[in-house]
Structures are given as C-alpha cells and as structure tokens.
Design goal:
6-stranded parallel sheet, 2 domains, Rossmann fold, 7-stranded parallel sheet
C-alpha cells in the first residue's frame, strides 16, 4: 500500500478579500492533494474548507496607522502565538496572503526557523514603503503576483516570482439578470441606478457612509434608485443606525448579489479598494473615494509614491476613473462628478472602452489553476 504524506500548510490572511482569494486556491488545492492540513488565520470561507484558526478572524480588520496603534497589544500577542505555533508544528509551507504589516513580520520569523514561504498577493511596494521589496527578497522563497506589472518590477530585484492572474477573473459571477435583480430588491427598472459601496470595515462605514448618504440626497429620486451595499463584515447595528439617521434618502440595502449591483448600476460610488477593480472589470464607471483618519492621512501622504489611489487607474496607468480623496470627497463633489459624466455620452463611452481593455488584461491566467501548481512545486510534489 502506497503511503500518502499528509502535508501541512500554514496560512495568514487578515482581510475579507484575502479570505475570498485564498479560499478559491484552497478549494482547488484540496481537490488535488488528499488529506492536506490547513492551520493559521483566515475567515469563514477558508474555515469552511478546513482551516483550523488560531485567532478570531474579525480582530484583524484594522487599517491605518492610528487604528493599528490602538490594537498593538493584540498584534504582539498574535505574533508571539504564531511564532510558537510554527516552531512546534513546523509546517511544510507558509503562505502569506496580502496584509503586509503583519505578514512581513511573520516572514522574518519563518526565515529564522528556515520554513519555506510563498507570498500570495504582493505587497504594494510600488505605491509606498518601497523597502518592503528588500524584505520580500530576504524573507520569502517565491512571490505570486496578481497585477501584471508587478512581476517585471520584482524581476528588477531578482526576486523569484510568478504572475498568477487576478482572483476577480474567477470570483465574479452573475446569477441574476437585471429584471430578476430588480424584482428581488424592489427596484424600478425604468430608473437609472446609482450604487454606493462604503467599505467592509466599521471604520470605513463610520467615515464614508454618511457622506455617501448625503450625496444620494442630492440626486433626483424620480430619476434614480439608490443602492447601498452592506458587507457581512461590518457591524449591523452601526450600519443601520447611520442609515436610519438619513431618512431623506430612500435606500435599497444590498447584502447579497453585489456583483449584480455593480454590473447593472449606471454608476458606482465606492470606497477605494478591490471593489473598484471589480466594478471596472464589469465595465461599470465608478467614482473612487477615500477618507482616512486625519493623522493617518497626513502620514500616508508623505509616504505614498503613486499619484493615483484607484487600482483600475493604477493598472491602466492613466486617469480613467474619477478619484476624490479626503477633503475633496464631499456630498457636493460626488454629485457634481457623477452628474457631469452621466450627462456626457462620449466620456462614458471612452471610459467603458478603457475598462474593456482592463478586463482583457486581468482575465488570464487564473489563480485557482496557477497557485496549486506553484504550491505543489514548492512542496516537491510530482504532478
């Protein structure tokens, strides 16, 4: 009887988007490698596929300098706990997914313990904290990039890397047509739909949702329906309290079929992040906005090396979609920007043409196919 080794992979994922991205890889990996063991930190999707979590996932949804400082003791505790776990368990492979603040520190631990490390979703060293590229070179064995230009930049530094494709190319699925979606959320199909995505963290909801609601109040409700996404990761009571304090806006809260909302809306207004790239992939124009803690913003402005915050604009390397940041993001500026573009058919056509190019750039390869090949190679498994 042939002995089948049980491989052990340690994962570290700190955000909902990473949980989704990694879960697709895990699903494919589980189908190819029998009885594989997964431990570490990950969300509900990864846990449903067999990940044994070391800490509650929701504690990791922290962003910004000030916010991280408030949770510093927790992260010290996590780092020490992971160090003990890795020393005791000695996994066959450590996979770090995005979340560079903690993950690069853990990579330092794995280097000292001589554990192989695969970094999935490259830290955005090209945007800020360029020194991270040297940490990647010293502390990781391989970097799996999801943006086309990243591998070329890593090659300059002689870092082992692969472009595995962007996860949204296989994550985005449309289940309902426009009519069925309208019936589900009781929308008027004769009106134009404006979609608002205030974010997936409580801190983002507190800063972005009131501004988005005040902006919606400026549009004519006879012409528009107002759709507001609600991520499962945000506090329900917090979200609903803010919604209920703006009774002048007739909102349709979308807590499912988010991709349909992106696809069928005439225009999206979204907090900067992966959601903006998803809207762009679906070829829907999107206004990209962000407000940070004032102190975090002042620190970040000194460190950021790129002039654009929106991933679609960064990938296309041009100002295709409007961006409004910090004090420039107001209810009036949102209204003016969206109205101007919607009233300009030629500009709308030009934007959609550029977004179709972006869709082509991100459609292949597919991470659920490339990542298992890469992982098998690093585990020395014959294909």
């Amino acid at each position: 009887m042939k002995y089948i080794r049980r491989y052990h992979i340690f994962w570290l994922v700190g955000e909902n988007s990473g949980d989704l991205h990694a879960s697709l890889v895990m699903k494919s990996l589980n189908a190819q490698i029998p009885d594989i063991r997964h431990t570490g930190i990950g969300g509900p999707r990864m846990q449903a596929l067999g990940l044994k979590p070391l800490y509650p996932f929701h504690r990791f949804a922290v962003m910004g300098f000030v916010e991280v400082l408030r949770h510093l003791f927790f992260f010290w505790k996590v780092e020490a706990g992971i160090k003990r776990h890795l020393k005791r368990e000695k996994p066959d492979l450590v996979i770090l997914v995005d979340y560079p603040g903690l993950n690069l520190r853990i990579a330092n631990i794995t280097e000292h313990q001589r554990l192989p490390v695969l970094y999935f979703i490259c830290p955005q060293f090209w945007a800020w904290k360029h020194e991270r590229v040297f940490k990647l070179k010293q502390r990781t064995n391989h970097v799996a990039c999801i943006l086309p230009f990243e591998k070329e930049m890593l090659d300059i530094h002689n870092i082992n890397s692969s472009y595995v494709g962007h996860p949204i190319s296989e994550e985005i699925q449309i289940e309902l047509d426009r009519e069925a979606f309208a019936r589900f959320y009781k929308l008027d199909p004769a009106k134009q739909w404006l979609g608002f995505m205030p974010g997936s963290r409580n801190s983002e909801i507190q800063r972005m949702l009131p501004t988005f609601l005040e902006a919606a109040a400026k549009f004519d409700p006879q012409r528009y329906e107002f759709l507001f996404s609600k991520a499962r990761s945000v506090d329900h009571q917090l979200y609903m309290d803010i919604i209920s304090s703006h009774k002048d806006v007739r909102t349709h809260i979308v807590d499912g079929y988010t991709y349909e909302m992106m696809k069928y809306s005439s225009f999206m207004i979204s907090t900067s992040g992966t959601a903006t790239l998803e809207c762009a992939y679906l070829e829907t124009p999107v206004l990209i906005g962000y407000k940070a803690n004032p102190i975090s913003y002042l620190i970040g402005r000194r460190l950021v090396r790129v002039k654009r915050i929106g991933l679609p604009n960064i990938v296309l390397d041009k100002d295709v979609l409007p961006e409004l940041v910090q004090n420039d993001l107001t209810p009036q500026s949102i209204f003016d920007t969206v109205t101007t573009i919607l009233n300009d058919p030629q500009r709308l056509a030009d934007i959609r043409k550029e977004l179709s190019l972006l869709r082509g750039m991100l459609s292949t390869p597919r991470p659920s196919e490339e990542m298992p090949r890469l992982i098998s190679k690093m585990l020395n498994i014959d294909e």
